[in-house]
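Example 3.2
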Amino acid sequence: MPRKEPNNVKVPCRYFLWTLRSRDGVWQADGRSNQPSAGRHSLNTRDFDEAKDIIHDLDLQIAVNLGLANRRLLDSQSGKMLSIECGLDFFDRHLDRPAVAGGPKDTTKQRYRRIIRAFTAYTQKRQIQFWEQVDADAFNEYAKVRSQSCTSATVVTEISLCKAILSFLIESKHLDPKFGFTYRVRRPKQSTRYCPTPDEMRAILNILAVDPDLKWLHDVVSILSYTGMRFGEVAQLTWDDVNLKNGILYVRDDVEHQQSTKSGCSRKVPIHQVVRAVIEGLSPCGDELLLHGPRGGRLRGDTFGDYLRKCALQPLAELFSHPRFQKITAHSLRHFFNSLCAASGISQQYVMEWMGHRTSAMTKYYFTSDDQASQNYIKKLELPTDVPPARADDIRTKPETKPNVLEGNDPGNQQEHRSSD
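Structure, written as tokens:
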């Protein structure tokens, strides 16, 4: 007995919900219940399974006609398209390449994978199944969604990684180049992270210096504030990295000794007198590390942040009522050092070298002007000089006619001509 085919079958597709109906044995797809209406179409087949396959192609074609999908998707067959999941698996294996082949550090991999998880969640929610569907509109929507919970700098970083993944898939022949596109992002010119003022830093160090149990925290804050080093770089400092005789701290990128920098390059930082006093007050604690946490163990970023807020920022809340004062982090102290150098007139080239910046643009990004320093600079313009202020009569309203030296040897004309040169 032949199988009886179903009728009025609901088939949800990428863009529309369709109803399959058989009319005189030929299957039709009815999408008129959608907004906008997808119309009614004959599938030109009497086979039910074939009709279910055809309807997905029809769904895309109608979506393109109605402006709901990019026309370039018609150039790919669904069976040949690269799924989001598969493309990300290719990129994940690319991240795991060894360091000698240009592979990123473990911390960078972790950061990238957090971004990938966020992008995957977005594509699933928007029912974006293939990389061929990722276009400028998808990036625009993703940026809009992420901007609701992330800073502009974070959104730029995430979009930049998504662009890099798309480029990798094209370069590695996993994705046709015709699905590439140009998408520009505007990087922030200045960091939005709060940079503490000299008065705030002085108060933080003073309150930490009172309690002997917080000496470890006072030492870490001092070194962060007067070297511009990242927290991870300070946490990995050893006694071999200190040269008090020459006044140098060595910030090393050394895989063998499990030391690393964000740029992958070692550098040297001069020892400030505040840092020298801290180091001279330290003594080895049974290992090679220079600094330790509250219980003598290795420094941890989360522990540092918790202690800083509880023991310094919260007790000073009444004195410094600015709401962003409570958001000071270890990285804020790096901004403080950069701004302190700028206010002291130190050459930008030196600051770039000390902080490990490859470009001056990044050093400018970290700079936050200090109001007191600005006042000190403007006062230099108020000092008496030999140049009198300009008068209205001194301002020329039209160019003067040059004297004609051929008309005679008038000394006045010659004198005026020479003075204009």
